[in-house]
Amino acid sequence: VKAALVGTRCDACGATTYPRVARCPGCGAAEGCHEIALPTGGTIAEATVMTVALPNMPAPYAVGFVRLDNGVEVYCRLGRPGAASSVPPRGARVELVSGENGDWWAEVAV
Amino acid sequence: VTLASIAGVGMTPFGRLPDRSLGEIAAPAVSAALEDAAVSANELDIAFVGNAIGGMATGQESIRGQVILRYSGITGIPIVNVENACASASTALHQAILAVRSGLYRTALALGVEKMYVGDTGRTLSMIASASDVAEFERHGLQFTSLYAMAAARYLREFPDNSVQDFAGVAAKNSANGERNPYAQFRRARTVAEVMDSRVIAEPLTLLMCSSIADGAAAAVVTSEPIDGAVDVLASVIRSGRYRADHSAPQPSSVATAAAAAYDQAGVAPTDVGVVEVHDAAAPQELMHVEDLALVGRGEAGHALREHRFSLDGELPVNPSGGLTSRGHAIGATGLAQIAELVWQLRGEADSRQVRFDGRSRRVGLALNTGGRTVDDRAAIAVHVLELT
Asked: What digits encode the pLDDT tens for the residues B155-175?
């Protein structure tokens, strides 16, 4: 299932932000920010593999910045939780997918 | 224009102090700073206590400063709790400078203290990760080392004259400095090969390129009174990272922006700076920081490092304390540990790690301390410029 992230678009300056905001951090306009659904497709802008585990995150796991097709960049896990991790190449096409309890991550498109 | 003077500094050596409370960790730093300033606890008019994760570490979420300072006999005066992630201590210093500069207070204490060893490394890593936008980053397992690793990879692509060996060179240089620093957590000089051969944390970062967990404290007494031979504060600049609208173009560095503001406030040029402490939470950051601080040109830091310009006996010593990787990174104390090092260096009291100011007409030092992460950028950036007059 594709991940439906919600961002904001500002009518005044055109800036798109994620996560959503009440007022635009780009131009400071008091009004005109409205919620939009972000695209679920994008490319890997930068990626790495963490070899150190966290209590909620067994290692290794890949993370990185995904540049969505509307230009917004998000930091997220790359690959399904628990999947063997290697660093996807920069520029690789990815899809944001959702899991349980609001979880989401990026998977390399096949 | 002098904003304020630093009358005294003190540190509790960084290290592993698992059996000590925050108050016990802070006390030696507070006492040393008061003694150095020749000020009694009763003469303090206000205190700012920087700490980042003590609430999570000990459960003391509120009024940590009052609890911590009571152990050092400081009560009754205004005590303000300051949290700004890894820039908490330099933010506390900024507040102390504002307080004495306002004229409402004459003598202020700035303290940074941290307790990171809680007997559970995973818990400590989670506490550190809380210095990010938790709602966005926690599910993705954010660790700051991932951000430093990706920034380092980007730097190598952008400036291919630099290499992973230069990152290891930074860590090796700083370990040699730390070996000479009695306040440092790690006092063992490492070779470039040892740094390269330590285990990979996140490509291209190895363990010895990364700052570790530490307990510790550092303090400064700040005053509006002119003191002969004191170290003056020429600039105190705090910024937050900026929202980023356009991800297709490189973002102007928030560190460079803060540094430019600091030079402007201080009325000094980068060439006036004779000693620097920067925020090498991971070793590659040191190279990027000296470039952001306009101390060398873009992409030239690796070359300058290889020419030993940043070494103790070089023309611009960087991180003579050993930096975050060797002196250690007790996160909410680091900013004032940098300030203590600069004060000792400027006053010529740094013993075997003393830098020289040969050929310089002024004794100017600069500290860069950064902290936390929003979805856009660093959360906090602090630059202080000091001069011995």
From this structure: 999 999 999 999 999 999 999
Of A65, A87, A103, the CB nearest to B139: A103
> Is B210 a known active-site residue?
no
Around B128, how many Cα atoms within 13 Å sit in the side-chain half-sphere? 27
Please, what are the averages of pLDDT over each run of 10 residues along chain B (389 residues)? 94 96 98 97 98 98 98 98 98 98 98 97 96 95 97 97 98 98 98 98 97 97 88 98 78 93 98 98 98 98 98 97 98 98 98 96 98 95 97
> Is B58 in contact with B24 (CB distance < 8 Å)?
no
Instruction: Calculate how close chain B gets to A40, using CA atoms only, in Å.
Output: 17
Choose the catalytic residue: B94, B289, B329, B384: B329
Q: Which of B358, B346, B91 is nearest to B230 (CA)?
A: B346
Burial B299-315 (b: 16+ CB within 10 A, else e): ebbbebbeeebbbbebb
